[in-house]
Write a structure and sequence with these properties.
Length: about 300
Amino acid sequence: MSLEKMKDLQLNEESPKPETKEINGILMTKIISDNWDKIWNFQAKPDDLLIATYAKAGTTWTQEIVDMIQNDGNVEKCQRANTFDRHPFIDHIAEGICMTSHYFPGLDLAIKMPSPRTLKTHLPVQMLPPSFWTQNSKIIYVARNAKDCLVSYYHFSRMNKMLPDPGTLEEYIEEFMNGRVLWGSWYDHVKGWWDAKEKHPILYLFYEDMKENPKREIQKILKFLEKDLAEETLNKIIYHTSFDIMKENPMANYTTLPTSIMDHSISPFMRKGMPGDWKNHFTVAQNEKFDEDYKKKMIGTTLTFRTEI
Ligand code: PPS
């Protein structure tokens, strides 16, 4: 198929929902599982910075903060390209019409990118390419409470043609609790990365803390990156990376992708940006069941979350 034809299809036709296939017990798209070796053998470098998250935990927000820091608060420089071109998503491979968008072959983009690179991943800790550990690359991990992650992931799965159909919210809650969603169990993800920070340079942040006090959390990132910025620049970063400003920023809000891939009229990528939105979605019965199951899955960890602020 010619590139023109592929672009035409991308603009005018619905992308089919992807096939899924497990790799190492984790649900992924089939194309990722079938090409797993390419991801596993990815060569990290000592000066890479990796932003790792469970999906919908505040990845894009953190990417924008980090880019603003790396560019000393220069907004124009941060608008040089889409978020997914600035920070390649190393565990994303796609095929067919989606290949015409840079978003999808994130792995290839990362391999070609000159250093120093800032990269994105949603991989659970045991699936991270081992070179990140041997190269001692810095990692920022951002965690968000399970219920808000679930609601955000549910709406994202409705609007993003690259994710499986989520069904009803009732059905999706069950799938989420059982870890039967792409990139696997939220519970194992947040706990696995929490434990990993004992042995590796990982800055572990929380979405709720970032929302409560962005200045304090950005200062943690500055310290971790061994950067110092003037107060005025810091305030500029807080403003530029606020939900309301990022929502209007086409280089950060995914609106440059065609509707055949992400349909923001179904649900915008920058949707609510608020801790506690799960309360507008869960019934009392769903919440009780979720909490009971949550206690069992999170037993024995020192990791705690706030489900509202
Ligand atoms: S992805 O697709 O996994 O990379 O998504 P991710 O960026 O991790 O998460 C998207 C959710 O983060 C919200 N968001 C923000 N919240 C607060 N402030 C800022 N600046 C911000 N930027 C993105 C976004 O709205 C999604 O959450 P929900 O709850 O769906 O609104």
